[in-house]
Structures are given as structure tokens and as C-alpha cells.
Amino acid sequence: MKVKVNKRLTYELDIRASDITLDEKLVDLDYRKINTRQANILYKNRSFNVELVEENTLDKTFTVKVNGNIYLVDIEDQYDLLLKQLGLDNSRSGKIADVKAPMPGLVLKVLIVPRQKVLKGDNLLVLEAMKMENMIKSPTDGVVTKLLVGTGDKIEKNTILLQFD
Fold this sequence. Notes:
Elements: E1 2-5, E2 9-16, E3 19-22, E4 25-27, E5 29-33, E6 38-43, E7 46-56, E8 61-66, E9 69-76, H1 78-85, E10 98-100, E11 105-110, E12 117-118, E13 123-129, E14 132-137, E15 142-147, E16 154-155, E17 160-164
Antiparallel strand pairs: 1-2, 1-9, 2-3, 3-4, 5-6, 6-7, 7-8, 8-9, 10-17, 11-13, 11-16, 12-15, 13-14, 15-17
């Protein structure tokens, strides 16, 4: 998969079982998960405290804090790369019509209303999954035409949450 950091550094990352390769070089590191959003990594005798600050599973973009420094990370897996090669990636396929739940969970808070104009990246709703609050963000600019969920609704993965104009 391709990993882009801060929209300028690009790496080829491959994770298989316990082997991690970065740009086709084997990386030797120790990893200790602290909780679902934090870990500690020991690499070349240096310690790195890593925290997942924000995630957008629709766009596969993440905000990560490493030893107090913030990094924006974009990920393209083999399916994204294949779609791009075939010319079928989202940037060319036109407008996004609906937003689907990336995971099953409970709608904690709806932050938008029908006919509201939103921009790409705007917060739409808060979804609780596995005792974690996940902010669902707008994948595109548009106007919300239909809101299909409300606060307190239990939803399944791929449930349509709202529709765009």
C-alpha cells in the first residue's frame, strides 16, 4: 500500500504477519499497544509515543501524533491503486450521492440537518463503535437532501446515513 505523510512524503508499506517493509526494506521495531488509539514503538533504540488523533475511514485519512508532532497520513491500498489504474477512482467518478456507515454502531449525535450545505471534511455525525466515538465527516461538498438516521439509532455497516444533492 502507499502511505503519504503530510501530502508530500510517499512510502510503499507492506505488513505481513510480523514483518513490516518500508520501501522494500525490512523494518525492525518493537510495538506495544497501549489502548485502541495509542501505542509505543521502539525503533533504532528510540522510543516513539504514537496516538491516533482522528480517522476518516471513508477517505482513508488519519491524523497521527508522534512524540507531540502532528502528521496527516493518507493511505491507498491495492484496491484503491487498481481503481485508479482503471480510471474508476472517486475523483473521476463524479459526485458522491450518499454517506454509508463504515462500521456498525450507535448514532450518538447528528450534527447536520436536511438542506444544510456542507463542505468536504465537515463533521456530520458521531458514531459510537466498540466504545469509541468516531466522527463521520463529509466526503464531498454538497447539500444534505435526506437524513436517514437519528440520535440513538443502532445501525449496521454500510447503512446509508444521509444523502447528498
